[in-house]
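In response to reviewer comment 3 from the previous cycle, which asked for concrete evidence that the modeling workflow produces usable outputs, we include below a single protein chain processed end to end. The sequence was submitted unchanged, and the resulting structure tokens are shown without manual editing.
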Amino acid sequence: MRSRNSWPREFAGPDAPICSRTTCAKPHETVTRQSEASKRLVFAAPGVSKGVATALATAWRTLGRDAVSVILDVDPEVCRLGYGTLDGLEMLQKTATELGAMVCHQPGLRIGIVVSDQTTLIYTPTPLLIADPVNSRLHPNGIVLASPPEKLAGELDIGPEAQATQRIGLDKVPEAQVKALAENLKANPPMPFDISRPVLVFNSQVEFVEFGLEKIQLQRQEVPIPPEVMGLASSNIHSLFRLDVDKTLLAAKDKLEQRKREIDKQFTRPVRGFGGSIIRRGDKPKFAQAVAELEKALDDFRDTVRTEFRAVAERNKTTLVDMLLPALRRRPPEECRQFTGRPDRDARLRQWLLAELAKPFEEVARVADDMRVSVRYKGVTFECLKDPEFIKLAQEAFPNLQLHEEYSAAREKPADSRQNELFL
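The workflow returned the following structure tokens.
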């Protein structure tokens, strides 16, 4: 790295003045105002916009190759998060090449530092993907110091001992790294920030929700007649292989569906044409509690269905055994002929018949196993937020939400001239 030992000692060290105050720091105005520095300019931040890069390039050409230092985190995520832009980086890389200087790389850098002669600004850069640029003194994001503290100056390679203590920006940014970053952003470009911020704000308040009661429809259940007893059956026994749903079960099902509709009415709103309903995220805890109560009611309903179907199945199986036993005595299948002539023949044949009928009847009772409450959440998408119809429906569904207008108003609120001052 090049040395900064030619810079005056009074700019950093134990004798440097330490006055400080908070400020609302906007890097573009900061660099533009301080580009008139007479001896040095240091800019360290995650990324750089084209406006900031233009001011830095002008200062670099004016002050000379060794009087300006630029340190960035050259990473595509920096651009996607909104800390800087590719064209700003490319402008500074071109300027550095023309001057025989270099842009330096500091992985993971997430603070901003501007040192201009005897003024130092340390600030929090704004990730434009998720937040508006600061524009008010009521929202301070930086500290203004006089000359940088001795340790900071050393880590930036501008202290009395220069390179011996430098820790930030040790690596040069090669041209190949900038090209690789450009290719990465071409393949996966940043989302437009004027859209991404409303998306995130909107998602913080509402979500899509799919909420349903699945497979609770009850209907007559047909029990398959086992092939082993098919030849024994007469036409009048087929009704015993059906399980009809009685009024008690239908009433219980209707009550369950009514409770589900009440939960929908209380917490969700349909947005027709967008594939579902929306719910306030703030309502999700109460919604989850209501869903849990519905699931408990569904558990009780499942038990009722199983009990009722099994009771009917047991009655029908007993009747079927009584009806089929005479035919079985006359024409026993191969596996039952061993019982012929035994004193317990009828008991053995009855046991065999019950075993053959048990499985198909039990399978029918398992219809309740597939009944369930389903809840699936999905975030509001970029495409939805671009659609005025979706915004209209969402605000009609929740009239006091008003979030898109509130967001836009906050974004467009003008700042007075005093709020634009950085170093007063």
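Confidence is low (pLDDT under 50) at residues 1-13, 403-424. We consider this sufficient to address the reviewer's concern, and the full set will be provided in the supplementary archive.
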